[in-house]
Structures are given as structure tokens and as C-alpha cells.
Write a structure and sequence with these properties.
The chain is of the alpha+beta class and 224 residues long. It has 2 domains: 5-178, Bira Bifunctional Protein, Domain 2 (BirA Bifunctional Protein, domain 2); 184-218, no CATH class. The chain is built from 3 helices and 12 strands. The protein has helices spanning 14-20, 66-80, 154-165; strands at residues 5-8, 27-31, 52-60, 89-91, 95-100, 103-115, 118-126, 177-178, 184-187, 190-197, 203-207, 210-214. Strands 1-2-3-7-6-5-4-8 form an 8-stranded mixed sheet, sandwiched between helices. A 4-stranded antiparallel sheet has the order 9-10-11-12, with no helix packed on it. The model has no long low-confidence stretch (mean pLDDT 92).
Length: 224
């Protein structure tokens, strides 16, 4: 099934637009600019008009744990961006990242919401520029800043992502994940040794209290 793609010059957020218009059914919404973009955990998503991809889609709910659903959805975005010539991976729990000069940088984020038997996925990717956000453990970057061989056309990229999002139960493995087994990690309220990503999307970590499974709400400011 090919999902229709609605293109907007400006909206508060593509997620909010879809929430206000359930009559649109299964579809995608792409905006040139967002005035009140939304990130994970209620955070604002800062963006510059025309310099990134701001896309949301209403889709059937796959038979996946919520954390895994978002990780596979972002892995599908990374796969859609392969023609850019960059090695893009996932930072736990579901950020789109790359390595620059030995340091992780963030190119995109994703959120998901369940509503009346459907899910609404929303993704933002910095294409030609990234906002200046000081004091972030993982600073923002854009495809262009990282030397992408080409920056994709936004509508074409949106169509490609929508196509891949319709089959998240068989999404590809990303080129890399961080943290990996054996990585020492820290966050605001703790530190430990990464033991891998659990099958339900949580992070398995050995801390001073023993082996723990960390959920999204348990970790803030994850860094090496």
C-alpha cells in the first residue's frame, strides 16, 4: 500500500497536525517548517525552516514492543539515507547518530504515540544545517556538515521512509549501535558497563547494584 503524503509549508508540529485530523486516516505529513516541533519526553525539537526533514505518519500498530518499534523505525530511516554515503547508526534508545572526529553527533530523533488503534511516528533529521544547542552530551549535526555525498530531496526521502515504515517487523539492523557490549557509559544518575540491547528495547547494564535493565525514563544524558 502506498501512503498519501501531505506537504505543508508550515505547521506547529506534524505530530500535532495528525492528532487534530483523524479523518485523514493512514497517511504521512511533511512540513517545510515547524513552529513548535516536539521531541522525546516532551522536549521541544528545534529546527530551521527548509533545512531538515520533519515527517509524521499514522500507521497500523505492528506487533512489537514500543521501544523496539521506535528503534526499527529509526533503523529504517538510516537505511533510507544510505545513498548519502555516511555511516549512520542508532544511539540508545532511538536517536540517529554518526561519528565525527571520534565523537558521536546526533542527526535525528523519533517519537511514537498510540491513539485509537493506530500509531503516529514522527521523525526529524537535520539535512543541510543543525541548530546550535550548547551543553548537549551528544551535539547536533547535519548530513551536509558531515560531508554527505548528496543531501536527499525531502519529498523523495519522505516517500522512501513511509514505504519502509510499513514493514517494521522486518526492518534492517543498523550499521552500528551505541553503546555496544563492553562500553563504559554514564548518565545523570549512574554509570555502568553496557551488556547489550535487550530484545524488548531496554538497555542491559552492569552497575554497582548488579545487572539492570534500563528503560527510557531511567536514563538522561547518556554519554561515554
Amino acid at each position: 500500500m502506498t501512503l498519501p503524503l501531505i506537504q505543508l509549508a508550515e505547521t506547529d508540529s506534524t505530530q500535532s497536525f495528525l492528532a487534530r485530523h483523524p479523518e485523514l486516516g493512514l497517511c504521512g505529513v511533511l512540513a517545510d517548517a515547524q513552529t513548535a516541533g516536539r521531541g522525546r519526553g516532551g522536549n521541544a525539537w528545534e529546527s530551521r525552516a527548509g533545512q531538515g526533514l520533519w515527517l509524521s505518519a499514522r500507521l497500523p500498530v505492528p506487533a512489537l514492543a514500543p521501544g523496539v518499534m521506535l528503534q526499527r523505525a529509526m533503523a529504517a530511516v538510516a537505511e533510507a539515507l544510505e545513498p548519502c554515503g555516511l555511516v549512520l547508526g542508532l544511539k540508545w534508545p532511538n536517536d540517529l547518530v554518526a561519528w565525527r572526529d571520534g565523537r558521536l553527533v546526533k542527526l535525528g530523533g523519533i517519537i511514537g504515540e498510540l491513539n485509537k488503534g493506530h500509531m503516529v511516528l514522527g521523525v526529524g533529521v537535520n539535512l543541510t544545517a543543525a541548530p546550535s544547542i550548547p551543553d548537549r552530551a551528544i551535539p547536533p549535526a547535519s548530513l551536509a556538515e558531515l560531508g554527505a555525498e548528496r543531501v536527499p530531496d525531502r519529498p523523495a526521502l519522505a516517500e522512501e521512509i513511509l514505504s519502509r515504515w510499513q514493514d517494521l517487523e522486518s526492518a534492517p539492523e543498523p550499521p552500528f549501535r551505541w553503546p555496544e557490549d563492553g562500553d563504559e557509559i554514564r548518565w545523570e544518575d549512574g554509570q555502568g558497563l553496557c551488556l547489550g540491547w535487550a530484545a524488548d528495547g531496554r538497555l542491559q547494564v552492569r552497575t554497582g547494584r548488579g545487572v539492570e535493565l534500563l528503560s527510557v525514563g531511567d536514563v538522561k544524558g547518556l554519554r561515554a
